[in-house]
Design goal:
The chain is α/β, with parallel strands linked by helices and 261 residues long. It has nine helices and 13 strands. Bound molecules: 1,4-dihydronicotinamide adenine dinucleotide and oxaloacetate ion. Belongs to the L-aspartate dehydrogenase family.
Length: 261
């Protein structure tokens, strides 16, 4: 795999280290890097033996076959379709871009016509396999996620002394208000009941140091209760380490003949 990377932040730099330096993707290498700030892309590219590009078209035509997006929901929406239209597979970190049903339809149409795929890694949560099985015969009745993070990981009052509920409502609204914090609700929506029927609660809690997600679901299969206590990434406490690992795992699993789950 000849990989291109959009976004040189936390997840991006983790992947460059894991793939280009530590050799954790034996069949792949990140050869091209694109970021909003060209000088950042140039510095990071040099450090990890890749090439940086200042415009998206040269990046997409740099000999890559797969693009990893690790930037923002806005960037994913801006470049996602273009990546696919150029005949390149896409792996998305900013899954909030897929909250819009019309956008998802366009993505599916381009994927079919260009024979490419878009992969949505499980990110900082799990249980997607259970939700997918549970809804196979329309037997999934409810899905909710309660996200509890320290104020440093949220756009919250940093001097909070007690926990505070910042949001309660559907995933479709949550991702509009917290596009950098609740991508997990959209991946759960896509596996389960959709962004309007997936309930979200976001709590800023000064008494926790981890990013905690509690996923609850019920249906004809039974009930699900899954709590994940994520360690934050050292350079960006908003992002859980598991989210970066899930992108690496998606790359490692890409094209494998034995698919688990
Ligand atoms: N699916 C999930 O479970 C999770 C998803 N995320 C999402 O993954 C994405 C990446 O996360 P991090 O690496 O922690 O973020 P980060 O903030 O550390 O890095 C983002 C990078 O993207 C660059 N960027 C911003 N706009 C851009 C544009 N228009 N074009 C190109 N580059 C652009 C920034 O300059 C920055 O270097 C974020 O959208 C984040 O919300 C984060 C955690 C969990
Ligand atoms: O990393 C996390 O715990 C979740 C997160 O930021 C997101 O879903 O956007």
């Amino acid at each position: 795999m000849k990989l291109g990377l959009i976004g040189c932040g936390n997840i991006g730099e983790f992947l460059l280290q894991a793939i280009n330096i530590d050799g954790l993707l034996p069949e792949g290498e990140i050869i091209s890097v694109f970021s909003r700030r060209e000088e950042v892309a140039a510095r990071i590219a040099q450090k990890f033996d890749a090439k940086s590009y200042g415009d998206i078209d040269s990046f997409l035509n740099s000999g890559i076959d797969t693009v990893i997006e690790a930037a923002t929901v806005e960037a994913a929406q801006e470049y996602g379709l273009k990546v696919l239209e150029n005949g390149l597979d896409l792996i998305l970190s900013s899954i909030g871009a897929m909250a819009d049903g019309e956008y998802v339809e366009k993505v599916q149409k381009v994927c079919r016509s260009k024979n490419v795929t878009i992969s949505l890694p499980s990110g900082a949560v799990g249980g997607l396999d259970i939700l997918k099985s549970a809804k196979a015969m329309d037997g999934l009745d409810s899905v909710s996620i309660t996200t509890r993070k320290p104020p440093t990981a949220l756009p919250a009052d940093q001097t909070l002394e007690e926990e505070r509920i910042l949001f309660e409502g559907p995933a479709s609204e949550a991702i509009k208000k917290f596009p950098r914090n609740i991508n997990v609700a959209i991946v759960l929506s896509l596996a389960g009941l959709g962004p309007d029927k997936t309930s979200v609660k976001i709590i800023a809690d000064p008494n926790v140091s981890k990013n905690i997600h509690l996923i609850e679901a019920a249906g004809s299969f039974g009930t699900l209760k899954l709590e994940i206590e994520n360690n934050p990434m050292p350079n960006n406490p908003k992002t859980s380490f598991l989210a970066a690992l899930s992108v690496l795992a998606a790359l490692q699993n890409k094209g494998q003949s034995v698919q688990v789950g």
